[in-house]
Design goal:
Layout: H1 5-15, E1 22-27, E2 31-36, H2 44-48, E3 55-59, E4 62-66, H3 71-84, H4 93-118, H5 121-133, H6 137-156, H7 163-175, H8 177-188, H9 193-200, E5 212-213, E6 216-217, H10 224-243, H11 248-311, H12 318-328, H13 333-337, H14 339-354, H15 359-373, H16 378-388, H17 390-411, E7 416-418, E8 432-434, H18 438-464
Antiparallel strand pairs: 1-2, 2-4, 3-4, 5-6, 7-8
Helix pairs in contact: 1-3, 5-8, 6-7, 8-9, 8-10, 9-10, 9-11, 10-11, 11-12, 11-17, 14-15, 14-16, 14-17, 14-18, 15-16, 16-17, 17-18
Length: 473
Amino acid sequence: MRIDPTVTAAAVLPLVGGPANVVSVAHCMTRLRLGLADPSRVDEEALRSLPGVLGLVVDAGSYQVVLGPGAVTQVTSAFEALLAAPTGGEPPGAARGELAGELAARGDLLREDRRRRNATPLKSALRRLANVFVPLIPALIGCGVVAGVNGLLVNAGLLPWLTPALAAVASGFMALIAVFVGLNTAKEFGGTPVLGGAVAAIVVYPGVAKLTVFGVTLSPGQGGVLGALAAALLATRVEKWCRGRVPDALDVLLTPTLTVLVAGLATLYGLMWAAGAVSTAIGTAANWLLTTTGPFAGLVLGGLFLPLVMLGLHQALIPIHATLIEQQGYTVLLPILAMAGAGQVGACLAVYVRLRHDTSLRTTIRSALPAGLLGVGEPLIYGVSLPLGRPFLTACAGGAAGGAFVGFFAMLGDRVGATAIGPSGWALFPLLAGNRGWGSLLAIYTGGLLTGYAVGFTATYLFGVPDRPRPPA
C-alpha cells in the first residue's frame, strides 16, 4: 500500500508527543528513529494502527517507527519539515520554550536511566559502528544492482557499447568507499569529517605502491574499509588532542596539519599493513568456513541471526560484509543470513493458519507479510513471533534449515553472494552474484528460501503455536 508521506508524518507527530517532545530525527533503511524527551507521551496503540506503520521498536536512546524501505526516507523528510514549520497547536513563545525545556530535562533523566540499564559498552560500540556504515547502504545497493545488470549483459554478449559505462558507474563508489568510511567515522566520533576522509583517502591513493613496510610493498586499497576506519579513528583522536593543546591563534593551521600528518604516517607505516592482514584473514576464513563446514556453518549462521538482530549484535557483521564485497565483489554471508527472514515468514504463515479465530493477529500478519517477503522482518518479529514466544524459536529453525541448504552448495563449490548489504528475501534477487552462472545462483537461493519457508511453517504448525488464541491487546 502506497502512503502519502506528508499525511503519515502529520499523523505520527502528535502521537509521539508533538514537536516539543521530539529531540532528534534520523532514519535507517526501514525505520524512522526519534529521540524523545518523554517516551511515556507516545500513544503506542494509535501509532501502531496508522496506515503505513509496520511496527514499533523501542531501543536504548531512540524510539523507532518501522515504515519500510523507500517510504521511510519520504516520511522522514516530511516529518522534519513539520518540525521546522511554525505550528499553531503548541504554546507560543516562552511558554513553548519552557515546555520544551521541561520535557527535555525529564527526557534526559529517563534516557540516562535507560542507558544505565540497557546500554553495554559492546552495544554502544556496535551502534556507533553501524552509524558509520548504514548511510553507505543506499549507494551499495544502487551500485550493486547496476553491477548485477552489467554482469548479465556481459555474459549474454548484449549491448557491448554500454557495458563499459555500466562498469564505471558500478565500480566508482567501491573504488572510493574508504573515503566515505573515513568521512562517516570522523563525523560519528566527533572529529572533522573532511579530515577523516583525507586520511582514509591515503588507503586508496595509487602512490602508496612506492612504499615498502615490513618487507612488503603496499598496494592501493590494502586494508580496505577496515584500514579507512582505523585511520579515521586515529585522526579523530589526534584532532581532539590538538584542539585541547594548540593555542587558538594557531589552531586553524596546526590542528589539521598535525592530524593529517600524524594519522597519515601511522596509516602508511602500520594501519594499512595490519588492516590488510585482518581483511585477508576475514576473506580466507569466510571461504574456508563455507567450503569446509558448509551445511553446519549455514545452519548456525541462519539459525542465530534473528537472536543477533534482537540483541543488536548483527551490526558487527556490517564491516565484514563490506570487506568481502570490496575483496571479492560480493559477500557470501548475506544470502545465508537472509534465510532467517524466510524462516520468519514460514512461521508467521503457520500462525495465520492455526489461529483462525484470532482476527487481530491474522490482520497483523496479512499487513506485515508483504514486507516480510521483501526482507523487512521487524513487523513480523515484533508484531507476531516474538510476543508469542515459541514461533520465534521455530522461525530460527526455519532460518537454520535454509542456511544449511545454501551452505551445502557452498561446500560443493557453488558460492552464492550478494553485491550489496541491506536487502534480503525477494529483494536480494537483483543483487545475487557468485562463482557460477545466474541460473545456478537463482536456483540455490530460491531453494534456500523455499526450505526456510517450509521448515519454519512445519515446525511452527506442529510445535510453535500456542494452544489457545492470543488474548486481545
